[in-house]
Amino acid sequence: MLNPSNFMRKSHFIPQGGRFFSFFPNRQKAILFAIAAIPVFAAFGIGRILRPVHMPEYLEQKKEWYEKEYLKDLEQIKPAKSHSNENMVWIPGGSFLMGGKDAQTLPDARGLHRVFVSGFWMDETEVTNAQFKEFIDATGYITSAERSPNEGNLIMAANHDVILPKEPFSWCFKEEKTPTKNSGDWWEPVRGANWKHPFGPGSDIIGKETHPVVHISWYDAMAYCQWAGKRLPTEAEWEYAARGGYAKRNYPWGNDLDFSLANYWQGVFPDFFLNRDGFLKTSPVRSFAPNPYGLYEIGGNVWEWCLDWYGPDFYQQSKKSGVSINPSGPHKGNQPLLKVIRGGSFLCSESYCSGYKVSTRMKSAPCSGTEHIGFRCVRI
Predict the structure, then answer these.
(1) b/e per residue, 127-140, with b = 16+ CB within 10 A?
(2) What are the C-alpha distances in Å from 271 to residues 95, 175, 362?
(3) pTM for this structure?
(4) Backbone torsions φ then ψ of 98, nearest 5 degrees
(5) pLDDT per residue over 191-241, tens digit each?
(6) Domains of the chain by range and CATH?
């Protein structure tokens, strides 16, 4: 458990980032501030203030009215008998500046703000098809894409002339060239597409056991976490881990874009694809070198679900409130109700979203999955 004196220890902060003292004109004032803050920590409990996010409490505090249908499934899932930190890496707690400010930074990621996160374990890789199958075999869980469609699936089709199937479906990227900048025109609902059949009937995951599982809704990911004794990372935890201990890197691997370091769209999206890395879609996990913390494909390959509701102005609001300690996003989702996804995918390029940058934010409807969204887990 951390205590107030830990704020003074150099080891708890990213070496290249500003430290706690950088908020003050000089070190003496910083120390005086820390001493003055002790009664506040004592009044509320230091453990309570610095405590990492716990999934049951998060769900109780940030539940939306329509989620009862989905979250009741979590109550039926019995956790696996054994939980270990195998294939996970320890991410030491610390402070960092969250967000970006360069020319590529989208409006929702502007508003640099100081964040402190407690230490946590994180999966080395995105959850694979083989790992997800183990969960399905143990629990009999049925994913969102395998169930009858509901209004949650309509969010992605909003404002687009798309006829939705009445049978179970999921969203796939259109293979034909689509000369439009409207992202909704690049996707189509495919009957029978799900984690076992990523491109619809006739497709399978044989030989792709080590590829990241896709067509997973946020609720599917939460169900897996319940079984595995883990949870999804908060957006702050995810960005902190992706930076790998460096404050000023653009990408998890450094400052230069290199197709040998990540699976992303090489060329002008969506019209021209060079395929320099040899992967048309997803790549097996551990295909590329890990970041300094030992995390593989934390940039590119597939987007990764985070715990947080998405708020376009959340960074600006956080900037006003000073240091955020273990933040977990807005209390409620904005309309439409969307969850944060991070890390980019094989469809991201410099000409469009640059999703593999450590500061880039994106969002998606929690009720449905796509062929380019997966997840990885954390444990505290």
Answers:
(1) bbbebbeebbeebe
(2) 40, 10, 21
(3) 0.83
(4) -95, 135
(5) 999 999 999 999 999 999 999 999 999 999 999 999 999 999 999 999 999
(6) 1-51 (no CATH), 52-379 (3.90.1580.10)
